[in-house]
Amino acid sequence: MAKYVGVLTAGGDTPGLNAALRALGKSAMGEYDLQLIGFYDGFRGLMNDRSVILDEQKLSGILTFGGTILGTSRDKPHRMPVGDKLMDMTNAMLEIYQKHHLDALVCIGGGGTQKNAFRLMQTGMNVITIPKTIDRDIAMTDTTIGFDTALGIATDAVDRLHSTAHSHHRIVLVELMGHNTGWLALGAGVAGGADVILIPEIPYDPAVIAEAILDRVRSGKRFSIVAISEGATSKKSAAEFDVLCKEKKNAKTKEEKVKAEKKIETWQRSQSNKTMALAQELEGLTGLETRVTILGYVQRGGTPSAGDRLLATELGTAAASLLAKEKYGCMVAVHEERMEAVPLEKVVDRRKMVPMDHAWVKAAKRVGTCLGDE
Ligand code: F6P
Fold first, then answer.
1. Does residue 111 sit in the same domain as residue 172?
2. Strands 224-229 and 196-198, how do they pair?
3. Which pTM value belongs to this model?
4. Tens of pLDDT along 26-78?
5. Which atom of ligand 1 is nearest to the CA of 299?
6. 135 flagged as catalytic
């Protein structure tokens, strides 16, 4: 049976990380007599050997705290900033793992962390992962730690914006996080009754949105709420991006590839103010005063919801039992309310997008919400 287990939290913080650490630690120590060593600031702490023994006292009283007591970072083991260079430090991390006589390492994180854990696994480390991200975009799991809390915060924002939009007869665009997927904006949009919901999976046409808003005006509703995911894009932009990607794919020489990549970077930079640009366009098309709220990091902050505490406790304890069984190389996933171990190779290099036949998409359409496409 394993004796010493390392743990780290990596990627963007989310509410519920401490609840997961507590559950993992309490079960690992109490039920299976394992010792837990935490590494600070994600993979960076592992590289620099900055660690702490996570005993009963350290894990006590943290269930309801937001953030992570271990700290986090977005560092990648194979591209670590060292001095002014990016270096592959996976073997240096293996040395620290061996130095501590670790039997396994638990990595709690999002899509990037799953990939980084997989890389460490390939050096010979025993790895188990726990999925967390407010984006809910990790493949092979129904949900992730942090999503439920963020959904509540985002829905509250959509709710609150109704009264001010209504009073001023304005269009209010509320930009929500989600990276390249629309789970958060779609969920909060449906739950908060947004009139228009824009997600990356459904490229939008501003004329279609303007028409939906004008339809509301014609029926006496002089305000509209648009919930827009940070990754949402117009049909025009989506087509431009496709062309650039094809150019990169068809590049024959190294120079052509570098040139194509530069073009993509420049294009991506030009897209950074998409929500503001759409707001201006809608103001022009409808003649209605328009405002933008970018909700930002508040979506990741504060106390985890009851749902996230439950999920984190289930996932943390499930990870502890995998450690006891020495079942490694997998992510603890949620599948139809049950915890299951999914091999990491089935998780990495995939992203869970909103499927067009998802119940939330269908429900949004059925209550007359405009999704920007038709
Ligand atoms: O992945 C979680 C997330 O909050 C995304 O929704 C958002 O795009 C991103 O992180 C922000 O990243 P950072 O914390 O690096 O600014």
1. no
2. parallel
3. 0.95
4. 999 999 999 999 999 999 999 999 999 999 999 999 999 999 999 999 999 99
5. 4
6. yes
